[in-house]
Amino acid sequence: QVQLVEAGGGLVQAGGSLRLSCAASGRTVNSYAMGWFRQAPGKEREFVAAISFSGSNTYYADSVKGRFTISRDNAKNTVYLQMNSLKPEDTAVYYCAAAFDVRPYRLVLNEGYDYWGQGTQVTVSS
After folding, report:
1. Is pLDDT of 87 > 90?
2. What is the longest distance spanned by two Cα atoms in the chain?
3. Residue 62: is its pLDDT beyond 90?
4. How far is 118 from 7, CA to CA, in rounded Å?
């Protein structure tokens, strides 16, 4: 089992920045790919970013490419999402997830992940 706990959400003005973190416990996550998803009110949960278990490969949704950066520190069992130039449309609950199947085409899918955190709210005001 893997437990994931997100932190770092909050209220920020448009153009601002936030850094989310996801602390993992239980089985080591070094062999898992990790991802961030988000869900806005009334919308489906969507892929944001993913990172391979080594950190050498990263993947981003087009809507966040160039603004968000995913990274991981395996020594700390923690994954990060640096979010810059935030927009009101980035407002959502952000979820961290861990995937044992690291094939890239699976990492953009909700069903590609085995464990999920409880989510952290990010609100961007205009």
Report:
1. yes
2. 41
3. yes
4. 10
Concatenated DSSP letters of 8-74: --EEEETT--EEEEEEEEES-STTSEEEEEEE-TTS--EEEEEE-TTSS-EEE-TTTTTTEEEEEET
Beta strands 78-83; 18-26: pairing state: antiparallel
Strands 115-116 and 120-125: unpaired
Q: Please, are residues 119 and 8 in contact by the beta-carbon 8 Å criterion?
A: no
Measured in whole angstroms, the distance separating CA 19 from the mean position of its chain's CA atoms is 10
d(C-alpha 39, C-alpha 59), whole Å: 18
Mean of pLDDT values over 87-98: 97
The residue-averaged pLDDT of 71-77 equals 93
Question: Is the C-alpha dihedral spanning 28, 30, 31, 32 positive or negative?
Answer: positive
